[in-house]
Structure formats: C-alpha cells, structure tokens
C-alpha cells in the first residue's frame, strides 16, 4: 500500500499514524523495535540535517533494510524539505514520500513550488505533504505561529494537488514553555473544507488527550522528533555518568530501549490500541 492509501484508510477509521524522525542506527532501531513489537505501521522521517549527518544513500539503505529486518510496514519520508532539488534527490534515492515546506513563503509562492513538488513526485508515484500556515521551528518564539486558514487550506490543496497537509493549529516544534492548547474547532473547520490527509507537526510535549482529540477531528499523521532525541540523549548521559565502559555496543542499547518504550507508548496512544 502506498503511504497515501494507508493514511486515507486510517483517516476514515479516525486513527493516527506515527511519523518518527531518526538520527542514527540506535534511534532507528529504537523506533522500529516498538513498531515491530506492537505490529504497527510507522513512518520513518529524515530532515535535511539528518540526511547530511548520515549521508543520503546510507540513511535510505539503513531505513529500508531495517524496516525489512524488523518486519514493519513503513515508509521513508522527507521531513521539511526546503528545496525542489532536495525533493528530487530524495525521490531518486528511494523515498516513498516527501514534504515540501513552503510555509515561510507568501502563499502564492508556496502554492507554485508545492505544485512543482507534486509534479516531480508524480514521476515516482510518491506521496507529497505541504504546509500552510506556520508551525514555529525549533528555538523560534511560538508567537511566530500563524494558524492555518480553512479557506486558504482548501484553495492550497486544490491548486497544488498535495496528498497531505501540515496544519498550524497551535503546536510548535520542540518542547513547550507552557502546555499548548490546540485549536480543535479550527482543525474541524479545516477538515470539513478539504479532502487532504491532515498532519500534526510538533507533537513532542503535547498532552496525550489533545493529540487524541486532534486525531478524532481529522489528524492522521503525527510527527514526533524531539522526544525521541531527548530520550536517547538523556538516557545515554545518565548511563555514562555511572560507567567507565568504552564498548559503546554495551552502553547504547540501554538508551535505545528507552526510545522503544517511549515510542510504544506513543503508538498505543496515536494508533488507539487501548481499545483492543
Ligand atoms: P517535535 O520535535 O515537536 O516532536 O516535532 C516534530 C516534527 O514536527 C517533525 O516534522
Ligand atoms: Zn515538523
Ligand atoms: Na513540540
């Protein structure tokens, strides 16, 4: 099943699909072990900086072969693609799905470039995510948030042909200074005005009940990055304080396990497994 098809099925069932970023072998294995043990599908995402860190083809090969090794139904997705060049490179390297993030551009330019990305991805049969409105990036003030307008969302989806749309409804990347409050009525309005699959960015730090409420109002793809990075590094820091062990293969797996525990909890909540 393509990612688009999968997300459509899940949207109809009012279920979420977790999209986890990975940074290295350990975080990749950490998230996949969680998906494997719960037998749940998962999106593996890479940002430009993670691609640059691991190397494009290395990252793709790692992601792809790990999905197979763990027996997980999953897709490779470019997170926050910032140029058409990067979009094409990732598709050439074997990504299933790409995000073109033109959210910082005037809507006219965002539409133009996102439509281009859709055209390029069409050659590969890949899924495309766009963003309209603005979800604050890491380290930026949350005041810079600009909510998605339902009318503009409908126009944007029609004119670009995107499969999925990242909406700005009160979330932000990274952790929050204060507990966020998602604009749920706004989300419902957006959902009513467009057929696109809806994406929640910045889910780290959002209380579980709000994420679930967002899923019940139309969100399907739920992006999780910071909590994964934080869990791995904080666990590793604690482990290193207590040991002189230099064999990283003995130390890293304990931090990886913590990532698995975290992602299992998220999968249970996002994919609504409690009822089973
Ligand atoms: P968080 O880092 O807040 O989880 O956001 C992740 C994200 O939106 C990736 O695109
Ligand atoms: Zn994001
Ligand atoms: Na966040």
From TrEMBL:
The keyword Zinc applies. It comes from the Bacteria. Pfam families: F_bP_aldolase. Its cofactor is Zn(2+). Zn(2+) 2 binds at residues 101, 131. Zn(2+) 1 binds at residues 80, 173, 201. Keywords: Metal-binding, Zinc. InterPro entries: Aldolase_TIM, Class_II_FBP_aldolase, FBA_II. The keyword Metal-binding applies. GO terms for molecular function: aldehyde-lyase activity; zinc ion binding. CDD domains: TBP_aldolase_IIB. The active site is at 79 (proton donor). Dihydroxyacetone phosphate binds at residues 174, 202-204, 223-226. One of its GO terms (biological process) is carbohydrate metabolic process. Binds 2 Zn(2+) ions per subunit. One is catalytic and the other provides a structural contribution. SUPFAM superfamilies: Aldolase (SSF51569). NCBIfam families: cbbA. This is Class II fructose-bisphosphate aldolase. It comes from Adhaeribacter swui.
């Amino acid at each position: 099943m393509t990612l688009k098809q999968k997300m459509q099925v899940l949207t109809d069932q009012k279920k979420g699909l977790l999209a986890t970023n990975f940074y290295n072998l350990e975080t990749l294995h950490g998230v996949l072990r969680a998906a494997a043990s719960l037998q749940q599908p998962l999106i593996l995402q890479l940002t430009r900086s993670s691609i640059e860190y691991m190397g494009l083809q290395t990252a793709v090969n790692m992601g792809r072969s790990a999905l197979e090794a763990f027996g997980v139904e999953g897709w490779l997705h470019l997170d926050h693609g910032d140029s058409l060049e990067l979009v094409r490179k990732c598709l050439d390297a074997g990504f299933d799905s790409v995000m073109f993030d033109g959210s910082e551009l005037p809507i006219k330019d965002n539409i133009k470039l996102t439509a281009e990305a859709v055209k390029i991805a069409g050659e590969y049969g890949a899924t495309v995510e766009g963003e309209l409105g603005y979800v604050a990036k890491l380290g930026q003030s949350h005041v810079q948030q600009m909510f998605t307008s339902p009318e503009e969302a409908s126009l944007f989806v029609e004119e670009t042909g995107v499969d999925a749309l990242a909406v700005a409804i009160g979330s932000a990347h990274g952790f929050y200074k204060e507990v966020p409050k998602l604009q749920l009525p706004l989300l419902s309005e957006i959902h009513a005005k467009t057929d696109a699959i809806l994406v929640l960015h910045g889910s780290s730090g959002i209380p579980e009940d709000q994420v679930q409420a967002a899923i019940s109002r139309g969100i399907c793809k739920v992006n999780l990055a910071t909590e994964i990075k934080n869990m791995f590094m904080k666990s590793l820091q604690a482990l290193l304080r207590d040991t002189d062990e230099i064999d990283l293969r003995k130390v890293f797996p304990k931090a990886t396990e913590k990532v698995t525990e975290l992602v299992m909890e998220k999968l249970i909540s996002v994919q609504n497994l409690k009822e089973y």
